[in-house]
């Protein structure tokens, strides 16, 4: 008779489910004649074990039937989801290609900017060289300060003489202009 009695844990191990599942189904059994071990563990007799096994097999068959019914009901939804996923994947691929092309365009723009900056720097150097050459040529053409002083000093005696000649001319008296 001890072989007919099993604890909840033993029955759960035998059926391959967890103890909570067995305990859930035990609460549907009448509690009048429930047996307990000296340690306090609930012991199930053969009739109770069959009842629980039947409930579990019914649940499993119901779950299996539901799982076989669901694919037929959900097939259009799944097909729709798959097509949406494919469309989204295609969009992602095109976005990736666009990103790659934008990165390439940015690299080209950066290269052009670098070239422009190098050319501007070369132009500036050439302008500086030309300015220095022009200044050198101006320095050669223009007389220096010493030669300017000599030229001015040589011009001054001539000017002094011309100024001296001018007062020798007889000045005309202006008040006599109305008398005639």
Q: List unreliable stretches of 5+ residues.
A: none
Distance between the termini: 177 Å
Order of helices and strands: EHHEEHH
Rg calculated over all Cα atoms:
58 Å
Biggest sheet: strands, sense, closure?
Answer: 3 strands, antiparallel
Task: Name the average pLDDT.
Answer: 81
Number of strands: 3
- How many helical elements? 4
How does the helix and strand content classify structurally? mainly alpha
User: Strand fraction band?
Assistant: under 5%
Share of helix, binned: over 70%
* Strand line-up across the major sheet: 1-3-2
Identify the overall geometry.
rod-shaped
Keywords summarizing the entry:
single chain; 180 residues; mainly alpha; three-stranded antiparallel beta sheet; 4 helices; 3 strands; rod-shaped
Molecular structure report:
- This is DUF536 domain-containing protein.
- It comes from Streptococcus macedonicus.
- The chain is mostly helical.
- The chain has a domain of 58 residues.
- 76% of the residues lie in helices and 4% in strands.
- It has a 3-stranded antiparallel sheet with strand order 1-3-2.
- The longest helix has 96 residues.
- The chain is rod-shaped.
- The termini are far apart.
- The mean pLDDT is 81.
């Amino acid at each position: 008779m001890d072989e007919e009695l099993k604890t909840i844990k033993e029955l759960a191990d035998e059926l391959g489910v967890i103890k909570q599942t067995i305990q859930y189904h035990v609460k549907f059994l009448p509690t009048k004649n429930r047996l307990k071990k000296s340690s306090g563990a609930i012991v199930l007799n053969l009739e109770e074990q069959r009842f629980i096994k039947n409930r579990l097999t019914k649940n499993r068959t119901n779950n299996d039937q539901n799982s076989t019914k669901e694919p037929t009901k959900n097939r259009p939804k799944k097909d729709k989801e798959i097509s949406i996923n494919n469309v989204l994947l295609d969009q992602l691929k095109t976005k990736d290609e666009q990103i790659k092309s934008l990165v390439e365009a940015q690299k080209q723009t950066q290269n052009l900017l670098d070239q422009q900056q190098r050319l501007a720097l070369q132009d500036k150097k050439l302008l500086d060289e030309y300015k220095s050459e022009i200044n050198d040529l101006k320095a050669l053409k223009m007389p220096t300060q010493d030669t300017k002083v000599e030229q001015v000093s040589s011009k001054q005696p001539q000017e002094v003489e011309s100024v001296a000649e001018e007062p020798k001319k007889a000045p005309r008296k202006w008040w006599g202009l109305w008398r005639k």
